[in-house]
Amino acid sequence: MNDMQPNDVAPNCTEQRIRLYDGSERRIFLCDEEVPYPDGKLIVSSTDTEGVITHCNDSFVDMSGYSEAELIGQPHSILRHPDIPKAAFADMWNTVQGGEKWAGYIKNLRKDGRYYWVYATVVPNKRAGVIKGFTSVRRKPSRDRVNEAQALYVEMKKAEVNS
Amino acid sequence: MKLKLTVSPDFPPEKLAGWHIFNTWLQRQTGLASHFDVYESYEELHSAIDAETVDLIYANAYDSANLVRDKGFIPLARPAQQADEVVIATSIENSAEKIEDLTPGINIATTADPDVRTIGMIMLEPANIDSANSQLQSYGSYPLVAKSLMKKDSQAGFFLADAYDRLSKLIQSQLRPLVRSHIQLISHSFLLSPRAIAHKDTLQELLENMAEKENGPRVLDDLDSKGWRIPDQEEVEFMIDLMSTLVSD
Predict the structure, then answer these.
(1) How far apart are the C-alpha atoms of B144 and B171, rounded to whole Å?
(2) pLDDT per residue over A37-56, tens digit each?
(3) Which residues contact A59 (CB under 8 A, 6 or more apart)?
(4) Which of A34, A42, A43 to probe by mutation at the B interface, max B CB count within 10 Å?
(5) Interface contact A59-B182, CB threshold 8 A
(6) Domain count across chain B
């Protein structure tokens, strides 16, 4: 996956390198500024079984800051924010690859380094009993639930670093 | 074979006349005998489906999911333009100006339409309101949902956006919309039962080209429709997957 570019990001971003689920590394830029989730909208995307984006709607494009052309063909981890513990993503992958629905609160990273919180639900696309890909639908979360998730993720990240 | 046509019971009585006219038009165009059945509740409709007395249905997305996945119904057509969107409104006298101003414990006025309920409850989540900490009160029509808000029996009302827009200016002036969905992917669909599969091509050709058929434009006007398009199976499967992310288990 391409590194994030300094020219694309908001002022006062800090640079980091993160290791992704497949073992690869990516340079990212982080800015401590949340972008509010738009009222009444759903962010929708589909991936193949490897997590590569095959479809996204306009709300996905608007909130991610990437163009549709920049998103299609990229791994969904293009949105991965380092504040979300690896265990949360592992739980999601294990659940949906096992054919079940997964839901949880996720902080997503935008192209400009800012972030947005969502309540995400991921389902396997089963066709004739075979998983052909996954559909993810994100909606506006409760702020109280986000605060609870954030506190939990901080603890999980501490445990991640210490392990 | 007599084709039994019906629609989800979310259509207000004043729109059913258009469906009776559609049924007559369908018979003249196809030469098939067909009968339009009206079910007043989802329970009645679901019993009829279980009894295999529905051949052609214009179903909401929630029912479409069950009919396609569990009953083997075949997607025939979807609206060319309209998607089903939802408005949550409150009384103009309520101090709430946005969803987050509502608080748990409220009464919510709604109809029995499962799509509207599902989308409505999702849009209340930012206010920490769910089915466990609120009371859903079901009404027979959207004007009655509006009346419940105006009488302050309810603090939030769920409306199909089209139905909200059709409320009189006087009623709308007594309400404050708090949010309107922009999902764009959820709509009703024409579905055909597996028993009637022999009529699939005829019906799809008729629906897709309805505006060019004799009296087609007038019948479309009666249905408040801009016409229909033929979806592929994957499009409908995708909508069903999407619905499954929205309903709680």
Answers:
(1) 11
(2) 999 999 999 999 999 999 99
(3) A38, A41, A42, A43, A44, B182
(4) A42
(5) yes
(6) 2
Closest partner residue to A142 among B98, B128, B179, by Cβ? Answer: B128
Q: Which residues of chain B have pLDDT under 70?
A: 249
Q: Are residues B22 and B61 both part of a single domain?
A: yes
Q: Which range marks the domain in which residue B64 is found?
A: 3-82+185-246
User: What are the tokens at B185?
Assistant: 């992917």
Residues B154 and B206 in one domain: no
Give yes or no: residues B103 and B74 share one domain.
no
Statement to judge: residues B160 and B209 lie in one domain: no
- Is the residue at A24 inside a domain? no
Name which of B99, B183, B245 is nearest A121 (Cβ-Cβ): B245
Beta-sheet pairing, B135-138 with B86-91: unpaired
A140 touches chain B (CB under 8 A): yes
- Report pLDDT digits (tens) over A51-69: 999 999 999 999 999 999 9
pLDDT of residue B147: 98
CATH value at residue A87: 3.30.450.20
Range(s) of the domain holding residue A113: 42-162
Does the CB of B239 have a partner CB in chain A at under 8 Å?
A: no
Same domain for B111 and B233, yes or no, is: no
If one counts the domains in chain A, the total is 1
Same domain? B27 vs B57? yes
pLDDT at B249: 64
Residue A23, pLDDT > 90, answer: no
Per-residue model confidence (pLDDT) at position B9: 84
Rounded CA separation A19/A27 (Å):
9
Q: Please state, as a whole number, how many other Cβ atoms lie within 10 Å of the Cβ of residue B46.
A: 14
Out of A39, A136, A137, closest to residue B99 by CB: A39
